[in-house]
Structure formats: C-alpha cells, structure tokens
Amino acid sequence: MRACSIIGNRAIRAGLASCLMLLGCLVTRAASAADCPGHPDAIGTSRTLVVDPREHPRIGTMQYPETLPLADHEVVLTFDDGPLPRNSNKVLQILADQCVKATFFLIGEQARANPEGVRKLVAAGHTIGTHSEHHPLSFEKMPIDKVKEEVDQGIASVSAALSDPSVIAPFFRIPGLLRAPDVEDYLASKGIQTWSADFLADDWRRISSARVADLAIKRLEAKHKGILLLHDIQARTVAALPTILQEMKARGYRIVQVVPATPERPATPTEPEQWQLHPTSETVPIARWPKVPGFVFAETGMLAAPALSDFDVPDGRLLLTAEPFDRVRRAGQHVPWPRQTTLSPQNAAVTLPVPAASLFKIPEKTRAMLQPFPVVARRADQTQSIAQQTKPEAKPHAAIAGARALPKRAAAKPRTRVAHGVHQAKPHRS
Ligand SMILES: [Zn+2]
User: Ligand 1: distance of its center to the CA of 51 in Å?
Assistant: First the structure.
C-alpha cells in the first residue's frame, strides 16, 4: 500500500514537473520572439534551466550516464577555449542577433590576455564556465596537485577579469575531455559540475564551415536534443554558426540557457529520469538504441587528420577518454543507460561510447585551411539535402560540402577503432 502511494506520488510529481516545464517553455518562447527586436527570424532562447551541480556532478552522454534534463528538441550551446577577440566577438554578435544565450568555457590564460572579452560575455548574459588555466591535454594522467592548480588558477584568472566573480558558474569542461576519476572527484568536492557533451561538430578539425554545420545538424538530428560543443575561437565556427542556428530553428529546435542554482535561485524541478538522454521505458523500444550513438563513430572513422586551430591555443584537437562505467559500478548504482544494452556484433563496432584515442594520433598541420565565409541562408532544397544525408549512415562522405577539403593522405588512410576507447591519447602539441 505504501509502495503504491510512493509510486503514485512520484508519477504525480513527474507529471507536474513535465507540465511546469511545458508551461515554462510556452511562456518563455512567446517572450523570446518579442525579446529579439529587429530580428523576427531569430531562434531566441526558449527557457533558462537552473541546475544544482552537487546533485548532478557529471553531465554529457559522450562520457557520462547523465546529461542535462532537456525536453525533446531542446539544445544547449557551449563554446570552449575563448575568449579570443578576433573570433569570439563575431560569435557574440551572431548570438546577439539571434537572441541566443550560451555557455562559454574559458581558458584562464585567455581570460588574462583578454579580460574585456570575459566582461563582454557577462554583459551579454551568457553563462561563464571555466576550462583550466593553460589547457593542458594531460588531465587524465596529471598529478592531482597539478590538476588542482590548473582548475583553481583557471577560475582565478577568469575571476580577475570581473568585478563580481560570483557570476562565474561552477561549470568546468576538462580540456580535451580527458577525464579521470580523480579530476572529477576534485571538481565535485568543490561543487563544480563536470561538463562533457552530447555531440560535437568537429570544428577544431581542418574541415569546411559547411561541414561543421552539417555535422552539428546531423548529430543533433540523431539525438533530438543535447549539449553541443563548439569553439568560439575558430573562424570556421564563426562561419558555420548562422547556418547552424537557422537550421535548428527550421527544424523546430529550441535553445536553452543553463545557469547554476543559488540560494536565491533554486534548481528547476526535475525527475531523475530526465537526466538521461533517452531513458528506457515501456514506451521507448530498446531496439532504437543502437542507431543513436552510431553517428559519432561512423563519422570520426573517416574524418581527416585533426588540424591545429588557427590560433596557438592548444586545442587543435579534442581528445576523449573512456566512459566512467567503473565509477557507476563502484557506487553500486543501477544506471539504465542504453549503451549498456546488448548490441548485435555488426552494430557494436559503431556504437562504442567514445572514439578511440588513436584516431587523433595524426600529424598535424600548423595552420588550418579556412574557408571563406560561405554562410548563406539555406534554401529548402539544402535543408532537404541535409535530411537525406542524415538517413543513411553508410555513405557519410557523399554530398558533404567539406569532403573535398580532406587531405588525400588522411582520406585514404583507414582508421583503426579501439574497443571502448580505453586507450588514452598521447597529447601532441606542435
Ligand atoms: Zn578546449
């Protein structure tokens, strides 16, 4: 009897939370159109999601069982490695024109070099997280004292640019996504939320801006919602961003801003299952799962060699580490993550949770080949083109604008996938 009562209450609470979320969406969506004067076609920001980092210390399904509690067709935009005035300011203008609020993960030394850039982000109302002091691509093997130094100094450097450092969110993205339990534990001990991502657009690679936009939309369409990781320091991202936002709006996606909970601003009510990208249930057939993450690996398996950015920040590549399943098992929790479901052998190869680190062990060029700004408003036929690309996973090269930019050497060289991505990449700066 008591169990029934608990279940009943939980169902009611879940229903209530969903209703509140829907109501909030409707109200804020109506407001967002009115709040973007002069830009009637802006996608706007549909709502603000308040999260408590202590309740959900690690998010992003590329590496963790949980992600942000987004509704279907909701997207959170994140930008790493800034501020770099040359390109970050352009990203800021594009976001302003679209009335979009995003989360920026700033590098400490960048903030010290461009404190005005940090202040511009805050003035524009974006969420500010941090991304270490020097962006070392070795967090997964760094002594914990060095990790602490990188994290703390990064926050201090961003704080130094601001008159009110309390506006900095306790959000941290590990450089290269090179996660390690000690790093995550340290961040959690400070009440800082570790942000991975739900999908990438490979904008740090030497690909065209059109390709970046295509990847962003294709991967979003595969998951229907989630956290997109971009880099505001990249010229190709500047060029791709208007197209990405236009496509998102055309396809009915909505932008959500995420802010941390404070004593005056309580967390948005959610249920535990909302923190899973697609929780399994009686109404969600498990058979759909193998298709969902496959695009990440189908795509990375044929991508060109990673390119250095056009800037000296050492984020010319993005490295990934293994899923923290060990942590979940250690805690004795049952996390019904879809990727733990049994897959057929032919699907298993493309549904691994993280790209093998060896994919990134490619000699890098010192300069990215940047396309001129080919941003044009997408016509209906282009939209259809992307939709067609999204369907078959088998021929990702076909009809992709950026494919011609692939170096022949890289295009011809087959990639080796390493099961479960447990091999750590050897960071390679140039
Ligand atoms: Zn980075």
Answer: 23
Residue 279 is predicted with a pLDDT of 60
Centre of ligand 1 to C-alpha 372, Å, is 24
CA-closest candidate to residue 269, choices 73, 12, 66:
12
Catalogue the E-assigned strands of 377-419. none
Report the greatest alpha carbon distance in the chain. Answer: 68
pLDDT digits (tens, 9 = 90+) for 197-216: 999 999 999 999 999 999 99
Poorest-pLDDT segment among 221-225, 324-328, 426-430: 426-430
Identify which of 130, 163, 309 has the alpha carbon closest to the alpha carbon of residue 236.
Answer: 309
Nearest to 120 by CA among 51, 167, 156: 167
Inter-residue contact 401 to 378 (CB < 8 Å): no
**Structure tokens belonging to residue 12:** 């009611």
> How many angstroms does the Cα of residue 359 sit away from the middle of ligand 1?
17
* Contact partners, residue 290, CB within 8 Å, separation at least 6: 341, 343, 344, 347, 351
More confident residue, 252 or 35: 252
Say if strands 193-195 and 168-172 run parallel, antiparallel, or are unpaired: parallel
Neighbours of 105 (CB within 10 A): 27
Cα 340 to ligand 1 centroid, rounded to whole Å: 28
Give the Cα separation of 262 and 292 in Å (integer): 35
Closest CA to 289 of 225, 337, 221, 335: 337
Give the model's pLDDT for residue 218: 97
Contact of 335 with 376, CB cutoff 8 Å: no
Q: For the chain, which domains are there?
A: 14-421 (3.20.20.370)
Task: Give 135 Cα–ligand 1 centroid separation in angstroms.
Answer: 6
pTM of the model: 0.65
Residue 117 contacts residue 83 (beta carbons within 8 Å) = yes
